[in-house]
């Protein structure tokens, strides 16, 4: 049993992955729904970096509770990962959002959840508003080096008393001449301990309603008064550093406001839709692999003289889970297709985010059970994602927030 366990654990926790645990839905490029040959060529380039520069070191970084973001991001910046759908004027590739989703799916091949999340913050969570609404000055100063992988960015939205309730943030940025004076704090900031700057959401007015008194601001993390208070120990996502950060009379130029002052809440809501679709894409390959690894393990693990997989309840359950993964994939692709058409994807993105979070909890828990005692060990591949994926139902809007959004849209759907 020990030899069997080691043989199945290594593919996920090492730098190679055998075909036996490849994605269930790996289709030929010509058969795919939203991808063509160019998408797959890009994914191949990303895969090479993952296999050479990331996966061989994941176990070490998980133990150290941090990966070297500047080093890894430079490698990814060199192949264009951070500028997929950004303007070529600032070093981007000028491609559409389907390529960003393709990259996110490929990032799911990384052997943990934390590093793909940190990469996605840089590519699709902290920078969309800067790319779309930022001034040329901000794009030259912050976006261009971010795309190149020369800078690491973090997103500063959540606070101790305002996580999913974005309108309730308390951090302020008050004008003083041509500057902004920032005071407050941010919590659960991915990349926060290593970031060069933050895309910060703060209140820039006290008189307006909470949805129109906020602005997104580029804040260099080395400015006087920026304090990285502590790195937060987490249940999972160990290799991704998460920090609590305070701002004490931090002075930045008012020209660091992204787009129009007071539009920060709206910009952030737009960013959230991209974040939710990318987060869904990141989970697909790991879920495929977890199910396939469990199939391989239960083929050989015997209980009462017969393979565990020969129990109909086990095999049927794995079939149900794989079907659910494919349903989420189809929902995601439909959302992406609508985004490419310029349509509002809030409803579908919220549905995908809700479903993938719940499925990730369900699938990892069910599969862990079938690994028996091995599933309760730290080295089991299912165990790592069981820990990491618990975040999917909390981050970028909790399940309950997704349900609230879906309900609002259901009330306003036109009659058929």
Write the layout of secondary structure elements.
Layout: H1 2-13, H2 37-54, H3 58-64, H4 69-78, H5 97-107, H6 114-125, H7 128-133, H8 136-148, E1 153-156, E2 172-176, E3 179-190, E4 197-203, E5 214-220, E6 226-231, E7 242-253, H9 264-300, E8 302-303, E9 306-307, H10 312-340, H11 346-370, H12 381-388, H13 399-412
Parallel strand pairs: 1-4
Antiparallel strand pairs: 2-3, 3-7, 4-5, 6-7, 8-9
Helix pairs in contact: 1-9, 2-5, 5-9, 6-9, 9-10, 9-11, 10-11, 11-12, 11-13
Describe this entry's structure for a reader:
- By secondary structure, the chain is α+β, with helices and mostly antiparallel strands.
- It folds into three domains: 2-148, Orthogonal Bundle (Butyryl-Coa Dehydrogenase, subunit A, domain 1), CATH 1.10.540.10; 153-263, Beta Barrel (Butyryl-CoA Dehydrogenase, subunit A, domain 2), CATH 2.40.110; 265-412, Butyryl-CoA Dehydrogenase, subunit A, domain 3.
- 49% of the residues lie in helices and 14% in strands.
- The protein has 13 helices and nine strands.
- It has a four-stranded antiparallel β-sheet with strand order 2-3-7-6, with helices on one face. The protein has a three-stranded mixed β-sheet with strand order 1-4-5. Strands 8-9 form a two-stranded antiparallel ribbon.
Instruction: Work out the oligomeric state of the chains in this entry.
Output: single chain
Query: What is the domain total for the residues?
Result: 3
By CATH, the superfamily of the largest domain comes out as Butyryl-CoA Dehydrogenase, subunit A, domain 3
Rounded Rg: 22 Å
In terms of structural class, how would the helical and strand content be classed? alpha+beta
The CATH topology annotation of the largest domain reads as Butyryl-CoA Dehydrogenase, subunit A, domain 3
Pfam family, one: Acyl-CoA_dh_N
GO biological process, one term: fatty acid beta-oxidation using acyl-CoA dehydrogenase
Keywords: FAD, Flavoprotein, Oxidoreductase
Domain Acyl-CoA dehydrogenase/oxidase C-terminal: 262-408
């Amino acid at each position: 049993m020990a030899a069997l366990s080691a043989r199945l654990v290594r593919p996920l926790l090492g730098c190679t992955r055998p075909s036996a645990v490849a994605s269930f839905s790996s289709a030929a490029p010509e058969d795919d729904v939203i991808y063509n040959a160019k998408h797959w060529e890009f994914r191949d380039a990303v895969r090479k970096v993952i296999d050479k520069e990331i996966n061989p070191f994941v176990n070490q970084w998980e133990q150290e509770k941090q990966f070297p973001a500047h080093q890894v991001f430079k490698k990814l910046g060199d192949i264009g990962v951070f500028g997929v759908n950004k303007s070529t004027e600032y070093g981007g590739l000028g491609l559409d959002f389907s390529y960003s989703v393709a990259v996110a799916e490929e990032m799911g091949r990384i052997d943990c959840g934390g590093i793909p999340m940190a990469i996605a913050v840089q590519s699709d969570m902290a920078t969309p508003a800067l790319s779309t609404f930022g001034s040329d000055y901000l794009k030259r100063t912050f976006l261009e080096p971010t795309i190149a992988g020369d800078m690491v960015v973090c997103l500063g939205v959540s606070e101790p008393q305002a996580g999913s309730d974005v309108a309730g943030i308390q951090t302020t940025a008050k004008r003083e001449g041509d500057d902004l004076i920032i005071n407050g704090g941010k919590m659960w900031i991915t990349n926060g301990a290593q970031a060069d700057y933050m895309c910060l959401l703060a209140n820039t007015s006290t008189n307006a309603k909470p949805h129109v008194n906020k602005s997104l601001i580029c804040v260099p993390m080395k400015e006087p008064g920026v304090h990285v208070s502590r790195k937060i120990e987490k249940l999972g996502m160990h290799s991704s550093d998460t920090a609590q950060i305070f701002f004490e009379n931090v002075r930045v130029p008012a020209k660091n406001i992204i787009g129009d002052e007071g539009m920060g809440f709206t910009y952030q809501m737009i960013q959230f839709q991209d974040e939710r679709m990318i987060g869904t894409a990141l989970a697909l390959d790991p879920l495929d692999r977890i199910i396939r690894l469990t199939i391989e393990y239960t083929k050989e693990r015997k209980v009462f003289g017969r393979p565990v997989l020969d129990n109909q309840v086990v095999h049927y359950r794995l079939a149900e889970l794989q079907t659910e993964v494919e349903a989420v994939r189809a929902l995601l692709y439909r959302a992406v297709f609508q985004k490419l058409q310029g349509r509002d994807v809030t409803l579908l993105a919220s549905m995908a985010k809700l479903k993938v979070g719940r499925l990730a909890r369900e699938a990892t828990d069910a599969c862990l059970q079938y690994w028996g005692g091995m599933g309760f060990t730290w080295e089991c591949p299912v165990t790592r994602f069981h820990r990491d994926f618990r975040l999917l139902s909390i981050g970028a809007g909790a399940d309950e927030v997704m349900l609230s959004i879906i309900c609002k849209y259901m009330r306003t759907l036109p009659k058929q």
